[in-house]
Structure formats: structure tokens, C-alpha cells
Amino acid sequence: MTASTDTSTRKAFPLGLTIATLIAAAILVWLGAWQMQRLAWKTDLLARVAALQAAPARPLGPVLDSLAQGGQGDFIRVKVECPGLGAAPYLELYSVRESGAGLRLISACAVQSARYRTILVDRGFVADNISARPPVNPGDRTPVALVGVLRAPDKATFVTPPNDLEGNHWYSRDIPAMAARLKAVSPAPIILAAETSSNPGWQALKPEPLPAEIPNRHLEYALTWFGLAGALAAVYAAMLWRWWKA
């Protein structure tokens, strides 16, 4: 009778809580694994940035020809002469730097390549508290010798606002749409981030191809997520033990 009574009075197995715990644990483990992937990506990125520091500038045309044939383009220092870049029309791309929010000016540069005729140039960063802009004069073809770093455009994420093509407010580097707005034909699928100035007389435009510091805390984040998953498992195991002993 005692065994029968114990079985009949024991509380029902907490199925709903078990399912919720499994789902939560799966999400935490997935986040930890994602951070480990980000760690590998960031480690490779930092290695390429370190190698870039001493890399000489290469002529842009041959690099673009290699890119068209499937070669590497990201994080290569190049040099090019851009006719009229200092007075070229530009798009305003929202950006945040260590100093705060602002805009990056994106213009088109004509290039000599077997496949591409233009490349979009990130001319630099203008702080949010500066309302002035460089002069625009499409008829000015004064050549600007530029040194910069090729950067693959970052893909927009679910938190990236949509680009406002009519209002000239851009939040992601959508090369086809930007090139169309600037009337740049046959654009290269990569951005040239300027290291030297396209407007030496206008100091508010600061060429900043890379952040001053690139943090790498993904291992810390991964351990946090895995730790939370382990803590959740321990709490659930304690709860299950109490249910079993009840």
C-alpha cells in the first residue's frame, strides 16, 4: 500500500518546465557557439589588420583585375588617381566612431580595370556636430592621388535601418544602389576606404579606414553563454532531484 500511495501522490513530471529548459539551454549553447565562430573571424581579421600595417600600396587596377577573377580583395592597401574626387558628389553613410556619431562621405572614382570602370570611395568621417560639407562641382576634374584600403562591404543585419535612397540617408554599404545613385557605371564589388585625404584643405573630413582599436572579447562572451547554459542545467537538475525525492 505504501508504494502504491507514494506513486499516486507524487506530483506529475514537470514536462512544460523541462521543454522550456531544453529550449533555453539550446539557445544559450547556440549563442556560445556563435561567439566562438565570431572569435575565429575576429582573430583572422586582426591578423590581416596587423599584416596591413606594413604593407605597401599596390596599383588599384591589377588588384581589381585579380578580384574579378576570384582573387582576394579585402584588406589590401592600394593607390589610385581619382579625377575630381575632391569636388565629387557624395552620399552620406551613417557611422559611429570612438569620438561619437557622424557620417561617412561616399563618392565614385573612375578606374582603369579590365572589368570595372568605377569604385566607390569612402572619403572619410565627418562628426555629427559639423554641418558643413566639402564643395561639390562635377565639372572639376582635378586629379586626387589617393592611398586607401580595400574593404568588403558589411552586410546589413536585422537591426540595420533600411537605406533612404530619396533622402540620401544610408545605413549600409549597398554598392549597386549607391553606384546607381552616383551614376557610377560598372562598379567594383568592394569599397576603397581612404587613408589619405581627398580634401586636404578641409580638416573636418577625417580619413579613417579602420577603427583605432578593434576589440576581441568573443571568447569572454562565449564562456558567459556556456556558463549560463551550465547554470541552467544545474538548477534544472536540482529541481528534478527534489521532484524525484518528493
- Overall structural class, as computed from helix and strand content, comes to alpha/beta
Q: What's the gyration radius in Å?
A: 27 Å
How many beta-strand runs? 8
Strand content: 15-25%
The helicity comes to 25-40%
Largest sheet: 8 strands, mixed
Shape summary = elongated
User: What's the helix count?
Assistant: 5
SSE sequence, one letter per element: HHEHEEEEEEHEH
Strands side by side in the biggest sheet: 1-2-6-8-5-4-3-7
Structural domain count? 2
User: Which spans of ≥5 residues are poorly predicted at pLDDT below 50?
Assistant: 1-5
Mean pLDDT: 87
- The N- to C-terminal Cα distance equals 17 Å
Report on the architecture of this protein:
With 246 residues, the protein is α/β, with parallel strands linked by helices. It has two domains: 10-41 and 220-245; 57-194, no CATH class. 37% of the residues lie in helices and 23% in strands. Strands 1-2-6-8-5-4-3-7 form an eight-stranded mixed sheet, sandwiched between helices. Helix 2 (15-52) packs antiparallel against helix 5. The radius of gyration is 27 Å and the shape is elongated. The two termini are 17 Å apart.
